[in-house]
Amino acid sequence: MADATNEWAFLSNNGTVLLSLASDPAIEVAQIAELIGASEVAVRQIVGDLVAEGYVVHARDGQTARYEINRKAHLRHPLFQAVEIGPLIDALREQRAL
Hints:
Arc Repressor Mutant, subunit A; 12% strand; alpha+beta; 4 helices; single chain; 46% helix
């Protein structure tokens, strides 16, 4: 097993939050925090960033928050700006189901 100080992941917390919202549009921040091992405050900040950047649309349905992914949004890194997030999300979700 790897040393805890040397652990890293290919997907950032932002990516895992986005995938969580794509998988369950009514998921709660507390559930995401537990899934990805982050604080609720950090997840709220990430969701806010995703909304502010146009990757996610946030709406309220009574007490329930609902999220819609902007599948036409593009990755931010200059090397991948031509890549839409919709197909990437689909590919990652498909592999997760295996």
